Amino acid sequence: MAQVVDRAIFSAGPVFIIIAVGLVDMCVLAYYLIVFPYNHHLSLQESTFLGKLSMVFTILFTLYMVYCIHFHYYMSIRTRPGGMTNLDIEAGEDESTNHGLLEYEESAQYPKTCKKCHLPKPERAHHCSVCNACVLRFDHHCPWIHNCVGHYNHRYFVLFMTYMVLSAIYFVVFGWRPFIICLDILNPEWPYYFPRPLMAFAYILSICMGLALGALCAWHYYLVLTAQTTVEFYNNYYEKGVAKSQGEVFVNMYDFGYVENIRRFFNIGDKYPWYTVFYPIPVPPRGNGRYFDRCQEFYMLPAAQQEDTILANQAVQDLEDIKDL
């Protein structure tokens, strides 16, 4: 039964993408055909400098937001999350020899092999039952992008949600007056080409998307700040309870602090300046997704506790029914 559901989710992926693009673009049309003319009708009629400047700034800002939404959504779909196929390995080769040696040393000490695809399974990788493949730094499978969220596209996915939430808030704030007007069906005057029912639907949809995606986006930023994936969060939550019951201190081996976690996730501060996070351009993640640096606090733990932590993470990787969470 689970396999049937997985196949259905995978097959319906393109349909989800078409629906998502259609709904987003409907809201875009509602803004430019109704909300923008309504809020700038005086600027369109008068020729004041400040009015024209405000209108130009609004157009540039909204076009930037629309482009960022579509760019990051496209990159979330088209970017492979990373796996253990030859293509993924060649595309993700790390330039650091030290990382390769450390990765080899850990693999020799704690060998990991996927029970489903029978390929080597690096740390933080999990098998997705929908895609039927191991995914590097697996977070979850998202049917709305017909793809897994993993090492190479997690950044695009988070930025897509960020721009979607901000745009939804912007639409709700500046579109409430046209929304109220479109509900007045007793008034036959409607000087816009965009139908009233669609305007009402777009506004309500923006509220719903803002709330739903806002909660999901906040959750992912919490995971970014704490250097976790969705799968790792539940495992770490359990391990915290075990460590507390044994009088030990739990340490997330990948947690370098809020600021450094942000820098590492968005790959800014070294090769890419901080402001590139606002650029709708392709930015690869840091590293190859098969080896991850560990914080100093982890190495300060007793050797036995370090080994238990690594083996516990490996046990979670062996779960065969990892699905969209």
UniProtKB/TrEMBL annotation:
EC number from the UniProt entry: 2.3.1.225
Membrane topology classification: Multi-pass membrane protein
Subcellular location: Membrane
One Pfam family hit: DHHC
GO cellular component: membrane
Class of enzymatic activity (EC top level): transferase
Keywords, ordered alphabetically: Acyltransferase, Lipoprotein, Membrane, Palmitate, Transferase, Transmembrane, Transmembrane helix
Domain called Palmitoyltransferase DHHC: residue spans: 111-236
InterPro entries: Palmitoyltrfase_DHHC, PFA4/ZDH16/20/ERF2-like
Domain of life: Eukaryota
Gene Ontology MF terms in the entry: protein-cysteine S-palmitoyltransferase activity
Positions of transmembrane segments: 12-34, 54-74, 156-180, 200-224
Catalytic activity: L-cysteinyl-[protein] + hexadecanoyl-CoA = S-hexadecanoyl-L-cysteinyl-[protein] + CoA
Keyword Transferase assigned: yes
Entry note about domains: The DHHC domain is required for palmitoyltransferase activity.
Membership in a protein family: Belongs to the DHHC palmitoyltransferase family.
Protein name: Palmitoyltransferase
